[in-house]
């Protein structure tokens, strides 16, 4: 079935979003109007389609749904689940069981989420046609953007896009991140020419799994076509900042290549070399310009200095990425930041209909054709009657909900873990502010470390202190993002026997124990963290700052002075409030960094 067929006959005003830039855009805007105007009817139809096709699956048969395809029966009989609940089914599929366990359509691959379970990326089953659904959502983004920024067909987009390594499950299915899957698909590789979607990066550079070669080529091509660039972007803010850091570190080599018209020998990938060769000719004037701009040591506004025609940054700065807004403002001289879409490995959810709004105002409109959506009022556990979940069209403005999805690929009433607040409606479709992801304590880029993982890492590292009769009495953490790449800072207060305190500290320093503790913590963190450290270099070495004895008591005093209850006080395991960070830093007696990279391999651990 074509994914665009779910269009109920409604009479809507296609120009409500604004006059479309062209006929193709008008058709896409009409589609948005139709979907949002009949959100509830579309949702009913989507569920009916999913249940009709998947009614024979082992999973749905288990709940005795029979041939019912209506919402009431579905909600009454099928439980709300988490990834851990589905683990046995997912493991069987990964091990090669091709029977219709979750989905009637064959599982084409697994998408590896940045959310982890037992330290490994979650495996999300997907089916071929989901690519069409994702493509459909992508195709809506430029028609909306064209309403606000005219002339984007007159130039190009400098987008830093990357693939990551992929692996095979024991049963032979590919497992890779959703964007890697998309960039490697024919949808992306063989996309028809579209003047509104011309990138400066050659596809060969995007598809190279070597992070250095890919980034080098993308930056070089961006510099060569600098006057054509109308928008600069990456998927997440952290990715764009990594690109700027790359320019800071490599501008001399890049200028050298431009001056001579020769690509550095460090880029060995033959398809990148031939793609770059088509663009790279000796251009001493451009090389001089880049050298002049980058050698000043002043990086403020570097994006608009090098790419002066940039109209906006296309980068997600909502959720965990909001911490990068000030840095991006600094480097871009205050360009608008467009957060265009909200998506995940499980399902692409929706788009921002006002992409040029301030980051603090961003709301995403969930497209009702993507999956069947339910909303668990935040703070509620789904009870046995499973009735608290609200349908897309019935959510209330101002309330917070956890997103629960039922997908064509076979997730049924699956808790995504995102908390969303309803900010309003577009037609009959609600719009949501991304509030936060549940249980995430620390995040630098796509890594998500929760409290239990941090606790486990501290425990594992502090074992190294035992031979020195020292231990960790208290700890907290902070995602340090003032430098790029950012890194985790863990504050430790140590307990050392008073009588031998001086000697113990000297022995710890002599033996480099604190540094080893940093590495031991990294080894204990989940695979997404370690991949970012090792393969992408997008997280810097973990740092332990040792604070003097009594610091955490002072922290408690401070919290109580600000109104915390003495009985209920708990040490915060992550801090970002500047006065608290100042307090901790002013009590720091030493700082230690991880001396090496933790272990990471693209293959999943089997335990
Ligand atoms: P993954 O499964 O690794 O693709 O990560 C998907 C998760 O990233 C979502 O469930 C959200 O928590 C987060 N995410 C995706 N898009 C956005 C966005 N536009 N704003 C904030 N968080 C987002």
Automatic annotation (TrEMBL):
Residues 364-437 form the GH3 middle domain. It holds the Pfam family GH3. Keywords: Ligase. It comes from the Eukaryota. Residues 453-577 form the GH3 C-terminal domain. One of its GO terms (molecular function) is acid-amino acid ligase activity. InterPro entries: GH3 (IPR004993), GH3_C (IPR055378), GH3_M (IPR055377). GO terms for cellular component: cytoplasm. PANTHER family: GH3 DOMAIN-CONTAINING PROTEIN (PTHR31901), INDOLE-3-ACETIC ACID-AMIDO SYNTHETASE GH3.1-RELATED (PTHR31901:SF96). Belongs to the IAA-amido conjugating enzyme family. This is Indole-3-acetic acid-amido synthetase GH3.8. The lineage of its organism: Eukaryota, Viridiplantae, Streptophyta, Embryophyta, Tracheophyta.
